[in-house]
Amino acid sequence: MKRSLYYILISLLLTPAAFSQGLSESRAFADSLFEEGEIQQALMVYQRIAYFSRPSTDPFVLLRIADCFDIQGDMEKALEFYDHSYFSLHNDSLKTEALFKKAFCYLRSRNYDFALIELLSVDEQANPLMEDKRNLYLGMAWFGLGDFERAEAFFLTIPDNEEDQNKVKALFDNRKLLYRPNPRVASWLSVFIPGAGQFYTGQPLAGINSLLLTGSLVTFGFILAYVTTPIDALITALPWFQRYYQGGFQRAAGFARIKRAENRNEAFNQLLGILESN
Fold this sequence. Notes:
The protein is an all-alpha fold. It has 16 helices and no strands.
């Protein structure tokens, strides 16, 4: 750590001409920092190299800067520099690598449409060695978008044996895991029977609570109508009943979305477990 900080402080004091004379040494040093996991220090040196080597900056340096931002979780900066490196690169393999890294950033941030745009621009014929990786990422993007038919088609190209292919098919045939619970069904169940949607989504306590609240308010309304007048009962009880009744079927739909997302995450993890051995 002391070595890297010392080098960076010295490099910041150098003139552009002096620094340019040692670009190759600086690049080697930055690479060593990157390999050692000292990402922030490596990023500072890479950026210094890029600054003093303009306008003919090595595209691989730009790619490394993007990698550093990616590791640090700064997706916006990472995507910006993956773009810079892609348009500066002349090597097809490195251009493809930049595209894949950019697509993976989008996948991790759940911007599946943008990931598809990047992946579909990869020439699979020109890069046959990248075919499995491209199909994996395309499968992930379509899975994230909920298009399981297309996702299955891409995932099925990856296993090299029939047993794993059958496991992939079985997983996509499991509609309960991928499509249940249905938020619309949960909502309508609670419309007709308060609390039923929560029971459907596996939230029995929330279902009982919803049923008791709405039932109590209906009972209170009838008692109030009997003791006073129906109009007084409507004015007093109806707003509370409407609030909890409407909130009940909205919460039921929310529970269903959360549970379905959990099920899909489980299915996706099972998929990765099947494919990682191929």
